[in-house]
Amino acid sequence: MCRLLNPHVNNPFRDPHDSVCAFTGPLPPKLIDVTGPGSRSERKERTRQALLDGTLELLDDRSFVSVSLREVTRAVGIVPTAFYRHFDSMEHLGVNLVEMSTRALRQILREARRNTNPTIRDFLSIIAREVREHEREFRFITQERYGGVAEIRRAIATELRLFSRELAAELARIPAMRDWEYDDIEWVADLGVTAIIAIVDDLLRADPRNPAEERAAISRGTNQLRVIALGVAQWKLKG
């Protein structure tokens, strides 16, 4: 249970710039985070991150369009009006969630880049590891890609196009593709991104309590990427 803090009371848990709720019991972990020590900018950044993280938690079994601003601020422990010091609207928060979540997607390429010559199986292992470590972020991308909020759909589409360009740049470094037209490399990258998102969705559906389901998803993903690689190679030979 919480009540709005009196701004005239010298309460150690009150951020002077973000009104918070006073809890009669132990403080929620996120409230402790946002009201901890530090400068005003540090506290503001902690609150902003807590709003993003708290929203992702609320989306574990729901869509973004079903989550209200009041639910988000309640989860963090601030009053609804304080939300607008960090985001213009729920849609603005959603777009920022897209930016945060797609960092996990880009991490796949960074991890693959560290491996001198990764096989398709190695690449699938990297995807599986990143999905396990950032499950909520990946779930948000796959769930809201065709969700009910237009701003979020557009932001995801934009980020996936950027991811495809990064993948195209990586493919262009492969000796077998160095003489390809860049337009051809780009459409191969688009095909790869579509497959990666499908593989991520498959991994998210696997029961974490049953390792066999994850292994099966990795096996299916490996076969999908192999078919794409073989098909592209044959297409180029015939072209």
Automatic annotation (TrEMBL):
GO MF term (any one): DNA binding
Pfam families attached to this UniProt entry: TetR_N
Keywords tagged on the record: DNA-binding
Ranges where the HTH tetR-type domain occurs: 45-105
Record's keyword annotation contains DNA-binding: yes
Keyword Protein transport: no
DNA-binding region positions on the chain: 68-87
Protein's name in the database: Possible transcriptional regulator, TetR family protein
Species of origin: Hoyosella subflava (strain DSM 45089 / JCM 17490 / NBRC 109087 / DQS3-9A1)
